[in-house]
Amino acid sequence: CGVFGAYSQSGSAVLEDIYLGLCALQHRGQLSAGVAWIDGGSVHIKKGLGLVHEALSQSELAQVEAHTAIGHVRYATAGGTRPEDSQPLGANYAQGPIAIAHNGNLTNAVALSSYLANRGAIFQTSCDTETIIQLMAHQPGTVQLEALETALSKIKGAYSLAVLLNDCLIAARDPWGFRPLVLGRRDDTYFVASESCALDIIGAELVRDVEPGEILVIDRRGIISRKLPKEAQRHHHCSFEYVYFARPDSVIDGRSVYSARKRLGSCLAKSCGCPREAVVAGMPDSGTFAALGLAEEAGMDFEAGVVRNRYVGRTFIQPTQRVREAGVKIKLNPQPGIFDGKEAVIVDDSLVRGTTAGRIISMIRESGAERVHMRIASPPVRYPCYYGIDTPSSEELIAAQMDIPELCEKIGADSLRYISCDELCEAIGLPLGELCTACFDGNYLEEEDDQSLLEV
Ligand code: 5GP
Ligand code: SF4
Ligand code: MG
Predict the structure, then answer these.
(1) Whose CB has fewer CB within 10 Å in the chain, the N or C terminal residue?
(2) 82 Cα–ligand 1 center, Å
(3) CB–CB of 201/21 below 8 Å?
């Protein structure tokens, strides 16, 4: 998912900025989009299914006078796909109005929500995010900010949040820093966004990342930085954001996603070897930058050998295998003539179910390639993600089921190479101890016992 928030200290309207920010975060979720603002002491929400421009009306939002608001684009990792599961979530409870937009996945939401339901909470959605609101409402008499901090100290897993409380905007990032979150500024308007590319679109400058475990409180007096009561042993920044999920023009935790992707490609060139006379092509869009890095490092020719239909979304968002397979065909096509009688080195960012690679390799062979070598700019994805990326269960993860020779046969490649976890970290420029690599190596975050967290 993607979150976005704005606070204008001079009181100018911000909803058009929110709309534009969400458009720049569209790659983070295409299932639904929504915005929330507070007016007259109560929460107002507009949301709908589909892309930002389908779910929301820019001209309607431009009429809203709110000087602070939040927005969300959703990609379902927890909760259903009904309109009521889309975000922001909002409520007017005893202490006042609240609206919340969440990127990430809470790992103890089930335990917490059954605890709360047994004490009278009535859940309106199937989103883990609602747990935060219910935890706040179950602290009678506690002022909102304090109730939010207590709620955050009880949840586990990944969260980058944009929250509206009465007249303030809050940004909060879990102590491990799984999902990105940045602070931006344009004159007297502050912004919080999942990625810095959303600041570029509205002409705001990147101030800094929201630190893991930090809560920023923004109101007309300025910004206050607070620390969550809970501290992490180490950071777990999601390495997959650099591999695939984030936009290449974003800078996350001080590192350019684009440069990281090119370095992933040059790691492939160094450690895997490629036939020199081969044509290098990337699977657009996600494999293009790694392919560039590989070709540059190896001194080979890069060709835009695979063409992408830019009006078709990310294939993995389509729900069934049948649609997914048709989706690859609709989306990608080899450039005629480029591969004829040649060897091809095809670079993609990741192999998940193997559908994309299998299809494209057979299309490239049909277009005349003599041999096709597959190069993957990440380690094998073998484990599911519990922190907000929709990797399927191990049964569907092809690298969890097969070794390299079997994979090669399955996708029809003449050779297949991956990079190692160490190379992944080196390319990103953060040590293994700062990154989450759980979907590659199964090293999940170690968390403390549940019971202690439950008492509200
Ligand atoms: P596959 O076809 O192997 O299932 O998916 C691999 C392709 O999907 C790659 O081109 C990659 O860009 C994209 N992809 C990246 N991340 C994910 C993810 O989290 N889930 C899925 N299913 N596909 C992803
Ligand atoms: Fe990112 Fe993988 Fe960790 Fe999930 S398990 S947070 S996708 S690195
Ligand atoms: Mg791709």
Answers:
(1) C
(2) 24
(3) yes
How many whole angstroms from 244 Cα to the centroid of ligand 3?
8
* Mean per-residue pLDDT of the chain: 93
| pLDDT tens readout for residues 26-82 | 999 999 999 999 998 999 999 999 999 999 999 999 999 999 999 999 987 666 678
Mean pLDDT of 203-224: 97
The ipTM (two decimal places) reads: 0.93
Within 10 A of 58 (CB to CB), how many other CB atoms are there? 13
Active site residue 1: yes
Over residues 267-274, the mean pLDDT reads 88
Residue with tokens 């979530």, as numbered in its chain? 89
C-beta neighbour count of 429 within 10 angstroms = 16
Q: Which of 351, 352, 385, 432 to mutate to test the pocket of ligand 2 (most atoms within 8 A of CB)?
A: 385
Which segments of 303-437 does DSSP mark as H helices, in order?
Answer: 321-331, 355-366, 398-401, 404-411, 421-428
Q: What is the pTM of this model?
A: 0.94
Tell me, what's the pLDDT at 39? 92
Domains and CATH numbers, the chain: 2-233 (3.60.20.10), 260-430 (3.40.50.2020)
Please, which residues have CB within 8 angstroms of residue 4's CB and are 6 or more apart in sequence?
18, 21, 22, 25, 70, 71, 72, 101, 162, 191, 192, 193, 194, 198
Give me ligand 2 centre to Cα 341, in Å: 39
pLDDT for the residue 79: 66
Output the known binding site for [4Fe-4S] cluster: 238, 385, 436, 439
Pairing between β-strand 42-49 and β-strand 89-93 as defined by DSSP bridges: unpaired
Task: Give whole-number Cα distances, 150 to 142, 147, 210, in Å.
Answer: 10, 5, 19
Question: What is the Cα–Cα distance from 242 to 290, expressed in whole angstroms?
Answer: 11
Write down the pLDDT at residue 314.
57
pLDDT band at 141 (very low <50, low <70, confident <90, very high): very high
